[in-house]
Amino acid sequence: MAAANPWDPASAPNGAGLVLGHFIASGMVNQEMLNLSKKTASCFVNFTRLQQITDIEAEIYQKNLEIELLKLEKDTADVVHPFFLAQKCHTLQSMNNHLEAVLKEKRSLRQRLLKPMCQENLPIEAVYHRYMVHLLELAVTFIERLETHLETIRNIPHLAANLKKMNQALAKMDILVTETEELAENILKWRKQQNEVSSCIPQILAEESYLYKHDIIMPPLPFTSKVHVQTINTK
Question: CA-CA distance, 141 to 132, in Å (whole number)?
Answer without folding.
Answer: 14
